[in-house]
């Protein structure tokens, strides 16, 4: 039983089902349906005219009756043909108010049915985009608030004389400033990602000197964390065709993530080899941190996800998302795997992230 309030903002839904006649659904073309509708209406009008003549009804009296019956017949058939259009009109008005949850239900296979299906897909994608936009604004606000609050508190202490302007206090302020700078850089990268304006400058990159350069930069950015950096490239003259700047960004983000979660005295192992199929290069980053649980591995490459380590990481939650984007530009893959060298790997604790780049980058 339908409640009185059901479909309050959508008048076409209040039409009784017995009036929503759709005998033309079996036809897959709107033009064919329209032709059948016109032909059927003419046939009904002609039949009623013949009946009225045989019944001896005056033409002036029969004509209005014939017209009314033909119009009612046409309306009943046309309602089933145009109901998806009415639903799309209501859904479009709802979308204009910010409601993207409305969908258009239709079983028609004609052009109107295809349009309704495309409209529902568009509404779903717009809803997802709007949700991502709101989440992005909320997450960015949260990420900006933390370093800004820390920097403000530190500067207030310096101004009020609570803290002396010694190197330690200034280093805290510098750390928060660097975190803000990193977040801004990541957001700029995300804007390029969304705009799709990035082009690859592909060149042959010698991985041995390249990885040493990236490790040096990551060690400097880690703020002197007590970790050991190990580089292994086999063969030593291994070369990969890639955009050096983007590849630097990928490996640097992975190394920063590894250093952030590594224990004091831990080792971070970076290795590069040819793939087993000899169709590309494999770069592995191992660390001795707590690892990433299996249930979190598919999410760590999403924006503002930290694999359940948000409290300890201090990162922006964007580094791995940007790494996946940059690897994708090359037509490669990035994934979290079990580290076979870890005794707890079977328990789902893994600290191995693998990047595979093809010999021929796909390009954007």
Question: Characteristics of this structure?
Answer:
single chain, alpha+beta, Heat Shock Protein 90, two-stranded antiparallel sheet, elongated, disordered N terminus, HisK_dim/P_sf, kinase, virulence, hydrolase
| Distance linking N and C termini | 55 Å
Helix content percent band = 40-55%
Mean pLDDT: 77
General form: elongated
CATH architecture of the largest domain: 2-Layer Sandwich
Overall domain count: 3
The structure class reads alpha+beta
Strand order of the largest sheet: 2-4-5-7-6
Element order, helices and strands?
HHHHEHEEHEEHHEE
Over the alpha carbons, how many angstroms does the gyration radius reach? 33 Å
Largest sheet: 5 strands, mixed
CATH superfamily of the largest domain: Histidine kinase-like ATPase, C-terminal domain
* Share of β-strand residues: 5-15%
Instruction: State the CATH class of the largest domain.
Output: Alpha Beta
CATH third-level topology of the largest domain: Heat Shock Protein 90
SS element count, helices: 8
Q: What features would you describe in this structure?
A:
With 364 residues, the chain is α+β, with helices and mostly antiparallel strands. It folds into three domains: 11-125, no CATH class; 132-195, Signal transduction histidine kinase, dimerisation/phosphotransfer (DHp) domain (Helix Hairpins); 202-358, Histidine kinase-like ATPase, C-terminal domain (Heat Shock Protein 90, 2-Layer Sandwich). It has eight helices and seven strands; from the N terminus they run H-H-H-H-E-H-E-E-H-E-E-H-H-E-E. It has helices spanning 30-54, 59-96, 111-160, 167-195, 207-221, 244-261, 310-313, 319-329; strands at residues 202-206, 227-233, 239-243, 266-274, 280-286, 333-337, 352-358. The strands form two sheets. It has a five-stranded mixed beta sheet. Strands 1-3 form a two-stranded antiparallel sheet. Helix 2 (59-96) runs parallel beside helix 3 (111-160) and helix 6 (244-261) packs antiparallel against helix 8. The longest helix has 50 residues, at 111-160. The radius of gyration is 33 Å and the shape is elongated. Residues 1-19, 308-312 and 344-350 have low confidence and may be disordered.
């Amino acid at each position: 039983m339908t409640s009185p309030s059901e479909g309050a903002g959508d008048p076409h839904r209040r039409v009784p089902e017995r009036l929503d006649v759709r005998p033309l659904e079996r036809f897959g073309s709107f033009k064919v349906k329209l032709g059948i509708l016109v032909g059927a209406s003419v046939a009904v009008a002609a039949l009623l005219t013949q009946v009225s003549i045989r019944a001896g009804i005056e033409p002036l009296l029969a004509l209005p009756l014939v017209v009314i019956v033909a119009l009612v017949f046409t309306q009943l058939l046309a309602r089933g043909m145009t109901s998806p259009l009415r639903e799309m009109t209501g859904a479009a008005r709802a979308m204009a108010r910010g409601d993207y949850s409305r969908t258009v239900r239709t079983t028609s296979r004609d052009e109107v049915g295809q349009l309704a299906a495309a409209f529902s897909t568009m509404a779903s994608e717009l809803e997802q985009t709007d949700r991502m936009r709101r989440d992005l604004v909320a997450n960015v606000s949260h990420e900006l608030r933390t370093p800004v609050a820390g920097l403000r508190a530190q500067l207030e202490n310096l101004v009020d004389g609570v803290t002396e302007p010694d190197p330690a206090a200034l280093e805290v302020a510098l750390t928060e400033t660097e975190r803000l700078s990193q977040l801004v850089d990541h957001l700029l990268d995300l804007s390029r990602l969304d705009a799709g304006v990035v082009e690859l400058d592909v060149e042959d990159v010698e991985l041995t000197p390249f990885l040493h350069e990236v490790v040096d930069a990551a060690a400097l950015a880690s703020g002197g964390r007590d970790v050991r950096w190990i580089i292994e490239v086999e063969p030593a003259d291994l070369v990969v065709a890639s955009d050096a700047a983007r590849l630097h960004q990928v490996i640097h983000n992975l190394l920063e993530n590894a250093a952030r979660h590594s224990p004091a005295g831990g080792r971070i192992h970076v290795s590069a080899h040819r793939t087993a199929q000899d169709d590309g290069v494999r770069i592995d980053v191992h660390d001795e941190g707590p690892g990433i649980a299996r249930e979190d591995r598919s999410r760590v490459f999403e924006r503002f996800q930290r694999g359940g380590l948000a409290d300890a990481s201090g990162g922006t939650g964007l580094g791995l998302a940007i790494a996946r984007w940059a690897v994708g530009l090359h037509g490669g893959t990035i994934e979290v795997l079990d580290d076979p060298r870890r005794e707890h790997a079977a328990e789902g604790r893994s600290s191995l992230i693998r990047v595979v780049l093809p010999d021929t980058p796909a390009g954007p």
